[in-house]
């Protein structure tokens, strides 16, 4: 028993030392949660930053609400009336009643017949009303047509060009204030004059598009109706027609003669052969 105790004691001491060494070398426990860090917020947008997607309206709202469409309407009417002068006055009266005006008016007389032409402009929203009222002036309406032209894209492009030119004009004015020599002043004034000329040209075109889209044009041709019982016979016209027919007949004869002369080497021998053959047959 003592012998067993003596043998086991050193073994137990060695095991105890090994366990103590292992416990001392083990690392301290690490907490599962990570230490807190200060949160970093995203940087604020720079001053003057413009978000195009946020500022632009959605599809249909953008195109319909922000774009003012400009349509140029034009109408053409041919009216047969009993009295040309009275009808011209009535057309001008209709234009005035619809807050429009007469652009041009003229009367023409030819072969004892009178015709007239009146061009008027009426507000675009009353274009159809004007057409209906003009039809009521006529005994017959042999011809009428309407035409619409969308000039919105052209007008929008002109607006953009005008904005750019006005910005360029402001820059030239700033340079003109800073110019020191006479040469610099003259150069800037020359360029400034060119820019202002372009601005005036574009403004004039824009005003024309605005005016023609706001006030539609209607051109009215007036013809006098033929009285009942009128045959429409005219001796002078008959004579002219007869002369034209004679000239056409003469040209046809001349064409035939030219063809006969050109092809005589072909048809003349054939004709001679046929005549001789007929004579021989008659003698036999």
Estimated radius of gyration:
51 Å
User: What is the chain-wise order of helices and strands?
Assistant: HHHEHEEHEHHEHH
Q: How would you characterize the largest beta sheet? A: 5 strands, mixed
Identify the strand order in the major beta sheet: 2-3-5-1-4
Number of separate strands: 5
Give the low-confidence spans: 1-5, 17-65
CATH-scheme architecture of the domain at 71-148 = 2-Layer Sandwich
Distance between the termini: 181 Å
CATH first level of the domain at 71-148: Alpha Beta
Question: What can you see in these coordinates?
Answer:
α6 packs antiparallel against α7. The protein is elongated. Among the domains are: 78 residues, Alpha-Beta Plaits, CATH 3.30.70; 62 residues. The chain is an alpha+beta fold and 284 residues long. A hairpin with a 2-residue loop joins β2 and β3. The N terminus is likely disordered. The chain has nine helices and five strands. Strands 2-3-5-1-4 form a five-stranded mixed β-sheet.
Task: Indicate the topology.
Layout: H1 2-25, H2 52-55, H3 59-66, E1 71-81, H4 84-97, E2 101-110, E3 113-123, H5 127-135, E4 140-150, H6 152-178, H7 182-214, E5 215-224, H8 235-262, H9 264-283
Parallel strand pairs: 1-5
Antiparallel strand pairs: 1-4, 2-3, 3-5
Helix pairs in contact: 6-7
């Amino acid at each position: 028993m003592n012998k067993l105790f003596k043998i086991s004691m050193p073994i137990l001491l060695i095991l105890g030392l090994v366990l103590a060494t292992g416990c001392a070398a083990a690392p301290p426990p690490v907490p599962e949660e990570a230490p807190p860090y200060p949160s970093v917020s995203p940087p604020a947008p720079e001053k003057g930053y413009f978000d195009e997607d946020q500022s632009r309206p959605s599809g249909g709202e953008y195109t319909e609400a922000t774009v003012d469409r400009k349509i140029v309407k034009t109408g053409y009417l041919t009216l047969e009336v009993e009295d040309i002068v009275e009808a011209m006055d009535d057309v001008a009266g209709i234009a005035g009643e619809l807050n429009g005006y007469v652009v041009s008016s003229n009367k023409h007389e030819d072969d004892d017949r009178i015709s007239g032409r009146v061009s008027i402009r009426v507000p675009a929203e009353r274009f159809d009303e004007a057409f209906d009222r003009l039809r009521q002036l006529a005994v017959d309406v042999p011809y009428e047509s309407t035409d619409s032209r969308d000039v919105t894209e052209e007008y929008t492009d002109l607006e953009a060009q005008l904005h750019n030119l006005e910005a360029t004009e402001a820059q030239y004015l700033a340079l003109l204030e800073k110019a020191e020599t006479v040469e610099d002043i003259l150069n800037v004034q020359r360029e400034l004059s060119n820019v202002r000329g372009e601005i005036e040209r574009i403004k004039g075109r824009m005003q024309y598009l605005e005016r023609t889209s706001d006030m539609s044009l209607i051109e009215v041709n007036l013809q006098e109706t033929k009285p009942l019982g009128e045959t429409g016979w005219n001796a002078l016209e008959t004579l002219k027609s007869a002369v034209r027919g004679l000239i056409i007949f003469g040209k046809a004869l001349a064409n035939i003669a030219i063809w006969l002369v050109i092809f005589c080497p072909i048809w003349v021998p054939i004709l001679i052969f046929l005549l001789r053959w007929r004579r021989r047959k008659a003698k036999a």
